[in-house]
């Protein structure tokens, strides 16, 4: 390793006459400074009393905790719960902190504070030890004569490699339920399923949806399923009504809305949060998780943020009794993208 | 005279030693020396908060019910009367309202988790900036790194257990990120959730991960980590009498037993105080998980915030590609997988990169002062800055609301900052290091300012400087600056291209980048020159020699200073 003189040594140099050593040498340990308690017996006694006092604080803290435990119940209100927590917590704090402060104070004021120096030894083992270790391994290998028995070696390796399968196969087989990932692409929306209010489950009539209003919607048959929460996670919908003149409808989707009422999946196409914040003025729908913004007047296209695709639209119409119903399921998978989404 | 206690202890020790031979271990261990410094406490805080997590965690397991079965709430909390919720959420309410001390333990557990992660990260920073990861401690750096990742896993799995709205949305985001992984993503999602999100299995699975798998791994690795610390012996800060061949400090017993043992109780106490006075994760306000509800302004725990920020900053337009009918979601993969992957790989591999560049094979036990390794320090600060930008971006909605800014503008600003801020931080930090080194030189050459002004016979005023004592000086001159490597030429004397030249070339380039700017420590000759010329103008001339690319204002202020000898026999006393 040599010095690159062409590179930039930024040192501001002083002069020098060349006869002095190139570097300073270590002056050795700095002198030890005595503490008050080392020289003054009174200070020593005082420090001892302080340590005793701190242990005393701890004892009182623990007693306080027990008293609070016996007398203060968390109860039914936030207030009583907080009071119980505060008193118990303060007791625990004093009980622990007192011990800690006492021990540290003791160590700092009364225990020996002479720094000691111990030698380090390099970690590497001596050449003889290493050679002996290598020899031991060689001897062992020779003993087993593994080098000469090729078939045996192969059999052993195969057995060891295969054995874990009896744990791994059932684990992998069972852990993902039925592994039918095509379920990502389906929800329980279907022709004729009514749009109901979330969470009451009350079906919604087209007539009660005024211009400018927004509804959080679930399918009205949700409770018929074994695991409603699982179905709900995919089926949530946000429905709004706007002035039909504000609405831009993509070719082929003209029949998907009803008198300015449009319904979109509420599962964000970014990573799946419920897209819940609707701003009536701009027709923008904001996902609070990472702020993807969708324009409901224009096919729920992304206008800002990390999402890339518009929210899928649920085609809706009205049944004989005036209730809003789905025309079908979504025509594309809802929610975040995945590798097989378009397959 | 021996007391009863001593006699009892002796008998007990004898009994044990005859059966275990433990005497030898105690003999070599009890008086083992550990150096002292406040920054060595950071690792201890991590250890002790883990112990607090174990204690409070076991308490919680006795009451927590890891089940997603739906029930109707009938406890004392009026706001949730009759609401449908999972048993996990209901049992968390029970812990908070009905179990005396349950809320305290929940809050102790959660605060301890935050402190655990914070102390791990700051401990890592200490190790990084002081170069404690150098040989022979590279492997322990890796163990520490894995501990940090496991800490993230522990925190994340625990945060999700109460099954409230907030944690449920966190899991939903996890599902979205997992699904974005090419080829295996969808199956991985099924693997985790036991089918489609949210499914029925997640809470029980997370529970096992959280109370068994991860803590057991953490515990095992902590044992390895500490064993290695004992084998290596602790590093020490530079100072007089401290070398790579010794370790200077206090004996384990009694000083460290008292200090470290006491410190455990202090950490526990402080966490208890936080739990008593500062509410954390009030799940009774959030409500049980419902996939259609989300609250604005919700934040994950701080150690997950950088991922959130990273997801928020990525622009979505044009970043989802369809290749042969398969969907590749770069808008999720880049921020949630690639960027954390790069940050974490840089962190994990840095010791090996630096060793590659320096070709250094010696053992190091004396720590670096960060200023003496400008490149490393600047690099560390740059990576931290990138991390910090992401972390703050994870709260951009709160910031926007607080300062009445446009959220979209703020996001755009952060996008730029993510690239610009680390570069600026690198340049600034490097400059600061170099000027601190210069300041050290100046201090060594000219001593402390005393504030005493004297007047020479010929009327000039100067300030008297008190030279550093030899210990102060040693701290500032005892380092070996790294120099850029020089490599052998590409062809040998017979004109044959040698092997390995390419690699050497890479090494040399990196070495240039690492070490081209540097400051050498003061030599005895320089100090002698600064003193013997006593007067001042000499120095001024001398100090400008041989500094090809000296930055402005760097020269020691030659002419206006004078040194006052340590013995106090001031030569210019007559001038006072
Ligand atoms: C290794 C580090 C650990 C970390 C970082 C950690 C972190 C967390 C966090 C952040 C929570 C959420 C607390 C809340 O606000 O309710 C939690 C919950 C929980 N943790 Fe841990 N934990 C750790 C270790 C443990 C251990 C060792 C156990 C048990 C042996 C445990 C048992 C629990 C239980 C039962 C809950 C649910 C309690 C509730 O929801 O009220 N944890 N953990
Ligand atoms: S989940 Fe909606 S923006 Fe990320």
Could you list some keywords that capture this structure?
heterodimer; A: 343 residues; alpha+beta; Rieske Iron-sulfur Protein; four-stranded antiparallel beta sheet; 13% strand; extended; disordered N terminus; B: 576 residues; mainly alpha; Cytochrome Bc1 Complex, Chain C; three-stranded mixed beta sheet; 20 helices; 7% strand; binds protoporphyrin IX containing FE; binds FE2/S2 (inorganic) cluster
Supply the number of helical segments of chain A.
Answer: 7
Per CATH, which architecture of the largest domain in chain A? 3-layer Sandwich
Strand order of the largest sheet of chain B: 7-8-9
Structural class category of chain A: alpha+beta
| Biggest β-sheet description of chain B | 3 strands, mixed
> Based on DSSP secondary structure assignment, what is the total number of beta strands of chain B?
9
Order of helices and strands of chain A: HHHEHHHEEHEEEEEEEEE
Overall mean pLDDT of chain A stands at: 90
**Count of separate structural domains of chain B:** 2
Helical residue percent of chain A? 25-40%
What's the level 1 CATH class of the largest domain in chain B? Mainly Alpha
What does this molecule look like?
The complex is a heterodimer of chains A (343) and B (576). Chain A is α+β, with helices and mostly antiparallel strands and 343 residues long. Chain A has two domains: 33-120 and 128-172; 183-326, Rieske [2Fe-2S] iron-sulphur domain (Rieske Iron-sulfur Protein, 3-layer Sandwich), CATH 2.102.10.10. In chain A, 34% of the residues lie in helices and 13% in strands. Chain A contains seven helices and twelve strands. In chain A, the strands form three sheets. In chain A, strands 2-3-4-5-10 form a five-stranded antiparallel sheet. In chain A, strands 6-7-8-9 form a four-stranded antiparallel sheet, with no helix packed on it. The longest helix of chain A has 32 residues, at 78-109. Chain A is extended and about 95 Å long. The model of chain A is unreliable at 1-7 (pLDDT under 50). By secondary structure, chain B is mainly alpha-helical. Chain B folds into two domains: 31-284 and 301-368, Cytochrome Bc1 Complex, Chain C (Up-down Bundle); 441-575, no CATH class. Chain B is 59% helix and 7% strand. Chain B contains 20 helices and nine strands. Chain B has helices spanning 4-20, 22-30, 41-61, 87-97, 102-129, 138-160, 165-180, 185-193, 202-232, 252-277, 283-286, 305-313, 330-358, 374-393, 396-403, 407-446, 470-477, 501-515, 524-532, 537-542, and strands at 33-34, 70-72, 84-86, 246-251, 320-323, 326-329, 448-455, 461-466, 561-563. Chain B has a three-stranded mixed sheet, with no helix packed on it. Chain B has a two-stranded antiparallel sheet with strand order 1-4. In chain B, strands 2-3 form a two-stranded antiparallel ribbon. Chain B starts with a helix and ends in a 13-residue tail after the last strand. Residues 535-576 of chain B have low confidence and may be disordered. At the A-B interface, helix 3, strand 1 and helix 7 of A face helix 5, helix 7, helix 8, strand 4 and helix 10 of B. Strand 1 (116-119) of chain A pairs antiparallel with strand 4 of chain B, so a sheet runs across the interface. Residues 50, 53-54, 57-58, 60-61, 64, 92, 95, 106, 109-110, 113, 116, 151, 154-155, 158-159, 161-162, 210-211, 214-215, 218, 281 of chain B line the site of protoporphyrin IX containing FE (HEM).
